[in-house]
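Worked example 2:
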Amino acid sequence: MRSEKSKEQVFRDAFALFVNGHIPDDIFNGYMSDTTGEATLRLQHWILDSGNMKGWIMDWCTGIGIIEAVEHLYKTALENGNLKKK
């Protein structure tokens, strides 16, 4: 069975595994269309802000590690055929 979710929804679902609450739309949308690295850095800072990272990983996890994990989860699911190519 292939998921019908959009890339954006899969990314939001994956980020929800690691962060509390909803990533603000301006930060998330900037990251999704980032071409310079600035928006990714902004997301990384948001993740590291107090209270945004889930408590059970705060003592060892990094913001960029979460971003890379989410990107890897999406890439692997796509390669595995679990997502419809849009």
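The radius of gyration is 13 Å. Residues 7-79 form one domain.
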